[in-house]
Predict the structure.
Amino acid sequence: MTAVADNPAAVGRPIRRKEDTRLLTGRTQWTDNIEIPGMFHMAILRSPMGHAKIKSLDVSGALKYPGVHHAYGAEELGALNGSIPCVWAVTDDMVAPDFPVLAKGEVRHVGDCVAVVLADSAYEAADALEGIVVEYEPLPAVINMEDALKPGSPLVHSDKGTNKCYTYVMQPQGDGAYAASAAQADVVVKRRFINQRLIPSFMEPRAALASPMGISDELTLWTSTQIPHVLRVLLTLVTGIPENKLRVIAPDVGGGFGGKLQCYREEVLVTALANKLGRPVKWTETRSEDMVATHHGRDQIQDIEIAATKDGKLLGLKVELIANMGAYLQIITPGIPLLGMFMYPGIYKIDSYDFTCHGVFTNTTPTDAYRGAGRPESTYAIERIMDELADELGMDPMELRKKNWIKHEQFPFTTVAGLTYDSGNYEAATDKAMGLFGYEALRKEQEERRKSGNPVQLGIGISTFTEMCGLAPSRTLGALKYVAGGWEHCTIRVLPTGKVELVTGTSPHGQGHETAWSQIASDIIGVPVEDIEVIHGDTRTSPYGMDTYGSRSLAVGGQAIMRASEKLVERARVIAAHQLEVSASDLEYSGGVFRVKGDPSKEQSIQGVAFEAFTAHNLPDDVEPTLQAESTVDPQDFSYPHGTHLCAIEVDTQTGKSKIRSYVCVDDIGVQINPMIVEGQVHGGLAQGIAQAMYEGAVYDSDGQLLTASFVDYLIPSAADLPSFTTDSTITPSTSNPLGVKGVGEAGAIASTPAVINAIVDALRPLGVNDVPMPASPMAVWRTIQAAGGAK
Amino acid sequence: MIPSTFDYVRVNSVDAAVAALRAGGEDAKVITGGQSLLPLLRMRLAAPSILVDCSDIDEMQGVTDNGDSVTIGAATTHWAVMHNDLVKAHVPLLAKATATVADPQIRHRGTFGGALAHGDSAGDLPSVVLALDASMVIAGPDGRRTVSAKDFFVDYFTTAVGADEVLVSITIPKLGAGWGTHYEKFNRTAQGWAIVGVAAAVKVEGGKIVDARIGLTNCAPVPVRASSVEAALTGTSASAAEIDAACASAAAGTHATTDLGADKEYREHLMRVLTSRAVAVAAGV
Ligand SMILES: Cc1cc2nc3c(=O)[nH]c(=O)nc-3n(C[C@H](O)[C@H](O)[C@H](O)COP(=O)(O)OP(=O)(O)OC[C@H]3O[C@@H](n4cnc5c(N)ncnc54)[C@H](O)[C@@H]3O)c2cc1C
């Protein structure tokens, strides 16, 4: 037999995503496509008011509509009206109001669930909502966070006596440490930044279908979620359906960005009602519902101050946040700002840090994780204030950064916030980005435009960001009072005919896990990428998992794949040695084939081993039949991707309109499994981060009406609005996991927002501008220029 | 986003359409491209009992040359309008403005007549037909009548087209030699609605502006002519400075509203800046 040539390594190749054919041609199952005979369609009556007492609710009128079978308000739902859980009580005295699935006597935000109708079709259900009679007595609403904290403010939850959810303080260097730094400093710069509220706006609206007709006695829930595993546990707790009688499936899911990291009221409703009625129940949200009922993101008032010497050495950083919880606490609402807490110091060496966050209730849609979850907010604040400090000191903003960042030889480095960054090379990423960008030439052009008084000014924005991925060592999560672990699971089996099933607990919803996970396993097991089927998103077929969010899937789940694959090869080695009648240590393994050292004619393929393990006719005594292995990995630590993002923007000072001229980013996400997927993730992230800077922002009026309730007013940029990105990378492997990977899902969204705003501010600085609000709409920019007394 | 129940009928003549509207009573509505009407139905802001589909009526399709004017069937799609040779040659302002309407998918479905009959103050095409002194043929139970563009737009989402009437066609005079045109649209995203739009046509002779027509989009409940700018421009030299000065009065006679995209003051400021820019481009400055 001739020697089999080794496969070229799969890891590192920009292989096209296996899943794309079915996703792009629509030959897949989205939850809304699933039809089950006898299915009821659910429609939800939602509060049109920001805050009101429900004086009376009569659902009986709905029952007179054709095709309608059931209608429920809180009273009719009775004991099935469970409460939505929050799993992150960030402080012992955190105020956690009841969050019933259907509102009991009071509605607290536009979109709050009031009643449901079940009908034969979605159309009939929607019509029948008009038959429900609700008498509301308007109550004063509170929308503004600072107003909500004032004594005498209307209360979102009157039984709690306060709108404050919690106050969290972290002073790693002790109380007074920051004050001491500030006293020493030559310069202290203070700013208030508003990190506005965003609506996740994934492409596939939420949908959920529960059916009591499972393959056994179980109830099956298909839902467009990022977290089928976590959701099953929570639904069991809320509905009382035993966990072993509940199967949760996330079929193909069309985006999430954190918005589907949730246990939603609608998921509880379809599950509880299908269980009660013995009939399948389906609900698919409309885009209008999505805008008010899917959790929102961001929404913080950030008071930040930074203290430095006159030659630019950072001494202290103080951050005080007010974070909008919305009207209720969802799964990890209160914890989101705390994920940011660790990252305010960014990539810089600072002596002291002082952090306070006040969580506050308002009559708005609850907030929770949205792409970056806390880290975009912190990155925005630190990268913005670094530019302001540079201006105050008369330094180039990049020079100021260089002076203070952690140098590559100083890793691992424990930051002032107490995290230990394992690796990084800010110098390398920055040098590469500056080269691609043409920094000097742009500065020159900027100078010329300023001199000639060109109405279109040019600005340059920098963001040298880092973030933390791979949430998280379970012990760390426990210390933060988070009620779950951070591990991930993988099972791998080689089937009798040599094909491979890889079962993962991560739950992709657009990220390309099927391809990337196959690449990792392919190199270790030695089978082609095409021969590996990745099984995910179903608590029956992939029973263990912590799902997908926080750029954790590769950094944590990837390790489980690696270890399971290695274990599998070791098992196979024992069987192959037995077959070849040599000792296991005499075998070498590559390209899917075991060969006897020194006698390459004696070999056995992994597929051959799998068949032997299946027939089990001739296995060593202590070896069990079948070829499979599993691994559950708890991460040792976070990983810390970083990068340098540079944005050049043209601002028309007459109209206030900004246009990105060029955008360069060099991200260091460690080892790349599939560079094409990496690039896609970066592009999407940039689009969302730029959108926060320039386009998106949820706006409420003082009564709690969402003014940006459709895509006419909530502006999402399309490809036509965005520049052609120049993306590149440096590779500094993470040392906190054996793959050397970090995480890329959120990087672009975290890094780009301050790069864009820094660029706009830079363009307008000669006009007396030192901040612009987000989104930096033309009107907002024009108003800023007017207020600064600048251009005509 | 599920509409209430409605009936639907597809007709193939204007007479049949009028009869169907009549039979349908108060709640009957014409549908052509559906690009404005369907969102209203889906958001339950409108609940017509019956939709009379006029997109398949031959008489309401295509562009014809009348010598000194062109006539465009009301059900001609935006795509067909902007790619039509007669339109490109004789009514280039309409072709340019239509190219800024929404996105390609919507332009393939939405119709010229639908965009006018809808009477949306933020629509791009009403200010164009107003600037170009177009006239509209409307058919109803009592026959046909012709209404000039200045009388066609009545109020927000209200036009001269009655509940039992159909807009059949739009006739636009050709501009002739010496005219330059431009549509300046200001919006925040590529397929977004105009915060302010300016439709400008100017005639330049010997370096002087001798005639000017300017229509403003989204500056009042109906499209408006910037008459004082038109007057101020006439006779000035086609130079950036003089154009700018003449456009200082662009907001006169408008009724700017405040919304998320622009408050009154900013919108009026945009009218001045954008009118000046539109005229400069149209005049080749
Ligand atoms: C996402 C989106 C973005 C858009 N952006 C823009 C934009 O930037 N600029 C812009 O100008 N427009 C925009 N539009 C609207 C677009 O121009 C529509 O095509 C147009 O407004 C309506 O044309 P239609 O044929 O689709 O009319 P329909 O939706 O079918 O009808 C609209 C209204 O006009 C009435 N009607 C239609 N035809 C007739 C007729 N022949 N006689 C009597 N009544 C009639 C209907 O009864 C209805 O009340 C946008 C639409 C969408 C969905």
